[in-house]
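Q: What does the assembled structure look like for these inputs?
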Amino acid sequence: MLIALGVTGGIGAYKAVEVARGLQKRGHDVVAVMTPAATRFVGPVTFEAITRRRVITDQFEAGANADIEHIALASTIDLLLIAPATANIIGKLANGLADDFLSTLYTATRAPLLLAPSMNTQMFAHEAVRRNLDTLAARGVRFVEPGEGYLACGWIGKGRLAEPDEIVAAADAILRPAGPLRGRRILITAGPTLEDFDPVRFIGNRSSGRMGYAIAAEAARRGADVTLVTGPTSLEAPAVREVVKVRGAVEMHQAVMSRAGDMQIVVMAAAVADYTPVERADRKVPKGRDTLTLTLKRTPDILGDLGRQRLARGGGPLLVGFAAETEDVVAHAAAKREAKHADLIVANDVSRADAGFDVETNAVTIVGPDGAEPIPLQSKARIAAEILNRVERLLVTRSAEAGHHV
Ligand code: CTP
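A:
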């Protein structure tokens, strides 16, 4: 979705940089529109570097009117967000004044408007400002209320720009119709686990974490409340509620089991080590002999434990597991689904070079209660969306069934 981020001349203008980043993290495209006053608080280059688009700062700039830019932009944006919105822009919008690019864009667009006002407490309480806000509210404009707190002018009271996270969430909520994942608590594991056998050496695997991170990002985009439990990876964590970094399988087991009770969905995309060294030396193991023997023991099966727990309690989170197979993919995945009491198993055919571990793309077969469905080779982001579509379908079926029982 394309969002025009209007930035006006308030002390909170610097927070708009975080807002732009947050919107991008949720997969939106952002074009920044700054009033001349805003450019005195933050440089346009900052927004340009972040949005990777030209920043619009002046209506009468050479070239800006070649394709009547405010009209062109007005018809392509999905949302106009103004953060911070000063008393001045609020007054202009309420009264239809259009003397700069931003106010002109507002009158020209039919996209929804979201305002994050920010001003001194006394100004916010002024009757003229209140009336303008009421006028805009009656017109269907939405607001992210300013926070209370210490203001730059020394006053303590209402008027401080809302926090960037809150503004981003409000923008996202307007753009995304509520789907079954909205507000659901989902835990996703990702990456490898590394099993140490001395202070510098470990046994690991080639998982990059991309598949799990893509699912976490997509779930957040759909409004889910996401906890990401991740083994060591080189990826930047998506903007989610909680990121728990772990190293070994035992630590991951503990991190997942202690949180699973609060979850409505658990997706085990991590490549958890099945074995870990029996002993971990305190000092680096010196070389000497021609051979070295390590004795390994089984790690706890996290997905298996979740499945057993759910069976014993007669309820629990919806469970999604992954399976790495090289042959008889569907039969093996179906057997794993039964054995682990999971709802869905996403089977990777790891014998292909272009799918599975440590590559950008994947091709999977999703095995669920209604059989197996092949998902052809595509980006891990698209595969994540396909997996979550199946999860949403199951959530809907389950709540319909629960409804019948009542
Ligand atoms: N898993 C887990 N805890 C483990 C090992 C695996 O939760 N100790 C999870 C993985 O995250 C994955 C699924 O279980 O979701 C994989 O099941 P697993 O039985 O380990 O199958 P494979 O790794 O595919 O291998 P194998 O066929 O050798 O059992």
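The chain has two domains: 2-175, 185-402.
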